Amino acid sequence: MTSPTNTSGASHAGHKSQRNSAVSHRPRDGHPLTWWRNVPPRFLGEPERLCIDNALRGLAVLGGSHDVAAALAGDSAAAIAATLSMAPLRHVTLMADIAMTALLSLALRGDPAAVLVLAHILGRAQWENSCAEDLGLAWLDRHTACPMDPKRFAVSEAAIAAAFCHQEE
Fold first, then answer.
1. What DSSP string describes 20-56?
2. Domain residues of the chain, as ranges?
3. Three-state secondary-structure class, residue 2
4. pLDDT tens digit string along 45-63?
5. Which of 17, 80, 95, 116 has its CA 20 to 30 A from that of 69?
6. Cβ partners under 8 Å of residue 85, min gap 6
7. Which of 89, 168, 69, 169 is nearest to 135 (CA)?
């Protein structure tokens, strides 16, 4: 079941990406590996995270990087590095779906760095998804609605810094 939805949230009401034609899908409308690019965060909670984790469990990525394998194991820095290495996404591939879904799982666990990177990747998306930017803004709204604990901020900052340093090598 689909319904026209504005996914960008109230705090970005005047943003140019707000589209009346954006269609958002509830989680039951697709495979969990596609939810990161189709489902607004307000429809994703603990039951959906468990479903996502179940979909990721047992995946082995042939030809994938060490970061993707570590991301599947729940390593936040590796998931961030894997997804940032794909930015900007011009085409959605199975590898992108897997890496972004691993990042989504971490975001749903409350990892603030994962939420920010998810918002960033969606906001810079260059494929033909009319609501990718709106989804990115919705994730950004979710991040600003849940302020970070200073201790978690330090851990998140270290994970993002490690991902950027790894990319420069």
1. TT-EEE-GGGS-GGGGGGTS-GGG--HHHHHHHHHHH
2. 30-168
3. strand
4. 999 999 999 999 878 777 6
5. 116
6. 65, 67, 167
7. 89
